[in-house]
Amino acid sequence: MTKTTQKILLDLVTYAFLTAGAVMMLAPFLWMVATSFKIPADQFTHTLIPNPATLDNFRKLFSFDLNFPRLFMNSAIISLLTVIGQLLTCAMAAFCFAVVKFRGRNLLFTLLLVTLMIPEQVTLIPNFIIFKWLHLVGTSVPLWLPAFWGGAFGTFLLRQYFLTIPRELVDAARVDGASLWQTFWRIYLPLGKPALAALAIFTFQGAWNDLLHPLVYMPTVPNTTLTVGLAFFQTQLTMGGRFTVLMAGALISILPLILVFFFAQKQFIEGISLSGLKR
Amino acid sequence: MEYGLRPLGREKFWFWVMLIPTLIGLTFGALGSILATLGLSLTNWDLLRPPTWAGISNYLALFNNPAYFKALTNTFKFSAMYVPGVVIISLFVAVLMNRKIHGVSIFRTIYFLPAVTSAVATALVWNMIYGRDTGILNYLLNLLGQPSICWLCTKNALMSVVVVNIWGAIGEGMIIFLAGLTAIPREYYEAATIDGAGTFDQFFSITLPLVTPSIFFQTLISTINAFQAYDYIYMMTRQGQGDSSVPVVVFSIYRNAWNFFKYGGASAQAIELAVLVILLMGFYFWLERRYVVYE
Predict the structure, then answer these.
(1) In this structure, is residue A97 part of a structural domain?
(2) Collapsing DSSP states into helix, strand and coil, what is residue B123?
(3) What average pLDDT score do residues B53-58 get?
(4) Residues of A in contact with B27 (CB under 8 A)
(5) Mean of the per-residue pLDDT values for chain B?
(6) Mutate which of A46, A149, A225, A253 to test chain B, going by most B C-beta atoms within 10 A?
């Protein structure tokens, strides 16, 4: 076998595997879309093309007692506040760890990294007790407020990126009389945009998809998030045999993330590579 | 000599402003919470009556609690299938994508889609796919002349849920490995080709050793995720009265605290989960020193 035939053969095998995998990755989404346009009588038919097709399932989401728009708004507000909190506090801390020299810097940073390995469930119960004591359980505050006291992952990610910004820039700015805050605001924030974008996307995704925390803090419909709402509708709608409405709800709930992903795919992927490669 | 600016005069104030949210989070949010959970685990408390001292009885109770033992076993079984599954499949996919072929970016987008979307939404479809009488999977099996399988019954549920969890995690693992693979210098492969090494020889003697840092990282992340897996399990294995056919430790913690109001007992379970994760991490870092190749 010559080198070229071997290469062509390997290419074919590669395509075969990747295509088979892609079908498996995509199939549930196609199924979701197909079912959401089917009429209720067709909910279990084994066809990908809805016939007849209908928009009724989507209309139902916005009409009867599901209160879908409210869930959507709750998720949106919580996710946006979480992103703002994380970007601000993680960027400030990352700047301190990457640029400023202070006593205990390494110790503090190591401590922060250690908290990355501690399962979240460990901190959940005391946090719940404190928020209950403050009468904030049942509101969205416990879901976004903790984003404003920093985060190990975000600080780590941004610090790694900030370290790659040339130090000569800082030295030059300092010679020109820039203060610490100006160095942060005028140099590191603008130059750190790719990493900040990646963190914003991760944070938004995490908050939007979170199930455990909303279950603990906002467990009752309709005063809750999309995830808890969908989990609740699952038990309600499957009994009445309305998978079509459920799929329409699922589809709408993932649309914002799909949109973000298509527009910011580069940042997504660079962010993950950044968190995995450099230590 | 370590690099660093020293804050001068009034800048010290701004320095503290920047660092204080993280300091608060670290002292109260993280370390304080751990101590608080530790303290709570030594009490019996339903948040209605005042807490009573329990000593280490909550921990001792874990040893002869069949429900907890089942949850712990499930968590280990889950991890034992999930972690190798994610690492091997995503490495395989990344190696295929790293061959310079057309259409890689389309494949990458498709493979990453499950990692972007919420487990809650995709679990709803997977429940339909796994459906016993109406699901597409059994329909396909029947077409092949095979009998239907009850995918989400107690016997098969763990396996079925692991498959979906792996499905959701391949995208991220693939990106980690792609980053690791592209960092391997081309010259190594060129030199090996000149020496007459075939594709498979090159994989085992160049790619695999040099990608060990990524394998280590991905194994670490996958293990942490496996021990905290909750969303798919909650969405796909819930039964009546809020129980699960595949209860894992996180499920048990949630149920004890928020369904049974045993905050002390749940805290003890949370602490044990953390200790297990930390011990495993220690083991991984020991392995890292022995087997991971850094250039």
Answers:
(1) yes
(2) helix
(3) 92
(4) none
(5) 92
(6) A149
Report the alpha-carbon distance of residue B232 to residue A62 in Å, rounded.
Answer: 26
Q: Which of B130, B83, B144, B59 is nearest to B280 (CA)?
A: B83
Q: Which of B245, B230, B251 is nearest to B120 (CA)?
A: B230
Range of the domain at A122: 60-277
In a domain, A10, yes or no: no
Residue type, A238: T
pLDDT > 70? residue A1: no
Which residues in chain B (179-198) have CB-CB distances under 8 A to chain A? 179-180, 183
Q: Is residue A84 part of a domain?
A: yes
Question: What's the rounded Cα separation, in Å, for the pair A12 and A268?
Answer: 29
Beta-carbon separation of A212 and B230 below 8 A: yes
How close B69 comes to chain A (CA, Å)? 18
Over residues A42-56, the mean pLDDT reads 88
H-helix or E-strand spanning residue B52: strand B52-53
Sign of CA dihedral A105, A106, A111, A115: positive
Q: What is B56-291's CATH number?
A: 1.10.3720.10
H or E, element range at A5: helix A3-36
DSSP character at residue B244: B
Mutation site, B40, B125, B148, interface A, largest A CB count within 10 A: B125
Q: Is the pLDDT of residue A247 over 50?
A: yes
The enclosing domain of A93 has a CATH number of: 1.10.3720.10
- B1 exposed, middle or buried (CB, 10 Å; 0-12, 13-18, 19+)? exposed
Is pLDDT above 50 for B149?
yes
Beta partners for residue B15, in sequence order: none
Chain B residues with CB under 8 Å of A115 CB are 26, 30-31
pLDDT tens track for A112-135:
988 888 888 889 999 999 999 999
Please tell me the distance from the alpha carbon of residue A25 to that of residue B171, in angstroms, as a whole number. 9
One-letter amino acid for residue A19 of the chain = T
Q: Residue A31 and residue B113: Cβ atoms within 8 Å?
A: no
Looking at the structure of chain A, the number of domains it has is 1
Nearest to residue B252, comparing CAs of B68, B59, B47?
A: B68
Which pLDDT value is given to residue A4?
83
Question: How close, in Å, is residue A51 to chain B by CA atoms?
Answer: 17
Residue appearing with tokens 């066809």: A47
In eight-state DSSP terms, residue B43 is: E
One-letter amino acid at A213 equals H
C-alpha–C-alpha distance, residues A28 and A34, integer Å: 10
